[in-house]
UniProtKB/TrEMBL annotation:
<dbReference type="InterPro" id="IPR033730">
    <property type="entry name" value="ProRS_core_prok"/>
</dbReference>
<dbReference type="GO" id="GO:0005829">
    <property type="term" value="C:cytosol"/>
</dbReference>
<dbReference type="InterPro" id="IPR050062">
    <property type="entry name" value="Pro-tRNA_synthetase"/>
</dbReference>
<dbReference type="InterPro" id="IPR036754">
    <property type="entry name" value="YbaK/aa-tRNA-synt-asso_dom_sf"/>
</dbReference>
<dbReference type="GO" id="GO:0005524">
    <property type="term" value="F:ATP binding"/>
</dbReference>
<dbReference type="InterPro" id="IPR006195">
    <property type="entry name" value="aa-tRNA-synth_II"/>
</dbReference>
<dbReference type="GO" id="GO:0006433">
    <property type="term" value="P:prolyl-tRNA aminoacylation"/>
</dbReference>
<dbReference type="GO" id="GO:0004827">
    <property type="term" value="F:proline-tRNA ligase activity"/>
</dbReference>
<comment type="function">
    <text>Catalyzes the attachment of proline to tRNA(Pro) in a two-step reaction: proline is first activated by ATP to form Pro-AMP and then transferred to the acceptor end of tRNA(Pro). As ProRS can inadvertently accommodate and process non-cognate amino acids such as alanine and cysteine, to avoid such errors it has two additional distinct editing activities against alanine. One activity is designated as 'pretransfer' editing and involves the tRNA(Pro)-independent hydrolysis of activated Ala-AMP.</text>
</comment>
<dbReference type="InterPro" id="IPR004154">
    <property type="entry name" value="Anticodon-bd"/>
</dbReference>
<keyword id="KW-0067">ATP-binding</keyword>
<comment type="subunit">
    <text>Homodimer.</text>
</comment>
<dbReference type="Pfam" id="PF03129">
    <property type="entry name" value="HGTP_anticodon"/>
</dbReference>
<keyword id="KW-0436">Ligase</keyword>
<dbReference type="Pfam" id="PF00587">
    <property type="entry name" value="tRNA-synt_2b"/>
</dbReference>
<keyword id="KW-0547">Nucleotide-binding</keyword>
<dbReference type="InterPro" id="IPR045864">
    <property type="entry name" value="aa-tRNA-synth_II/BPL/LPL"/>
</dbReference>
Amino acid sequence: MRQSQSFIPTLREVPADAEVKSHQLLLRAGFIRQSASGVYTFLPLGQRVLQKVEAIIREEMNRAGAIELLMPALQPAELWQQSGRWYSYGPELMRLKDRHERDFALGPTHEEMITVLVRDEVKTYKRLPLTLYQIQVKFRDEKRPRFGLLRGREFIMKDAYSFHTSQESLDETYKKMYEAYSNIFRRCGLNFRAVIADSGAIGGKDTHEFMVLSDIGEDTIAYSDASDYAANIEMAPVITTYEKSDEPLRDLEKVHTPGQKTIEQVASYLQVTPEKCIKSLLFKVDDRYVLVLVRGDHEANDVKVKNLFDASIVELATPEETKQVMNCEIGSLGPIGVGEAVTVVADHAVKAIVNGVCGANEEGYHYIGVNPERDFTVAQYADLRFIQEGDPSPDGKGTIRFARGIEVGHVFKLGTKYSEAMNAVYLDENGRSQTMIMGCYGIGVSRLVAAIAEQFADENGLVWPAAVAPFDVHLISVNAKNDEQRQLADEWYEKLGQAGLEVLYDDRPERAGVKFADSDLIGIPIRVTVGKRASEGIVEVKVRQTGETMEVSVNELIDTIRRLLQ
Ligand code: ATP
Ligand code: MG
């Protein structure tokens, strides 16, 4: 493509409202433009990258046996009412009415739509398992759309759904999808991890998120430095065992601690380490109150609390609720003398505390010489804290480290949540009606483009991996007014194209400096510059990623480019 005839509006300045590198560079290099908060146009270069990424996804999904279809974004409200999500999805669901005042939603995801489709068309076990997918636009009215394509309100997703007659069949497809996802992200050149995730309200057991490692990621991953173990931090079990010290037990004593509220304040005021302190947090777990105890240097993990009680909602009690239930401030909470109405649970580490410190449920006072079991009772000890860096890895191999990640994909065993709600049944071998078992598998395609840009960039611009680059070669004539240079560049623009290479040809009558700066910004893997030595048939080849340059005779140009692209 000739750049003079293309549409690649580059910007010199960093756009003021773009906070992260990928967002800034995709705007500056002319890949995307914002049309409303969280809503973007893919300009021609952006569209080319998107198509490359989609092609990789299609190849791997097809190879894994999934079949492509395309469902509508506009969905009747009845579907969502049937699953109950019309009421539970909240304001993220974009709702609208047609001219007859009928309610519709713009699909944030397509479980309802596909379940009804398969229900109506598949009646027998002979047609199962079945995996269908689409690459399609999604709508979510996100509270905080940000970071450009990373969190949009209109975005492109690949969503796949599988239907089965048995758990084993679901397990098999889940494994295939997991592998397909690994292939896709590997082919995009990404540094990623598949992490064990929380299955949330849906209640399925197995679920993995695919995370691209990046400092701007919103999720924290706990991974082992010695194995491929990785989990969302809220999910990682703690396997540390705690030794109880054999120091003699002291008497329980209430002491005055005016104004000392946080663990740090109390520990330093009483001259003890945070490990000696018991942190008490009052949670509302569905409709009961639970006092959760963890060691002062640990953080209580609400997902683990939720799982312990098999609850659907876990929230910290408000100051008003705390006052009402415990008759004190949040900062004074403690487990001694707690009434029947409150269940006390504790992390394993608390059991090993000897002569500890805790709040006295009275402003300005703490207990010292606190000993669990002697001074208070605990209904249950469990793993209730967040894993920390330095803890042993839950698989027993190595030590836990933390990293930040951008979630680009999600594989999920749904079970029968939607098939039950939408009555998706089939007849088994004995003619009996059975509920289909389902899995779902998503990739944020437009988010993936931004995640690649986030990982592949330097101070001069984007540095696309060859597999997803908008073009293979950026051909530049230094001086378009020089006949020799222009003719050689024109000639090789044709020849490279005939050789099957995708070439962006900067034939614009711009200064060389402008062309080079734009070229670095756009980030095509190979730059070929036709300049001073055009008359000798010699051009300069530059590798965007390494900065390596070489003078090459045009006779060897195609071979050189092919070699470098590999
Ligand atoms: P997040 O926690 O980031 O909001 P999610 O758990 O809501 O993601 P899913 O419902 O699992 O996401 O959707 C499948 C995939 O779609 C995600 O893995 C992610 O890559 C992508 N995705 C989700 N929300 C957005 C968004 N607002 N903009 C771009 N991509 C998104
Ligand atoms: Mg979300």
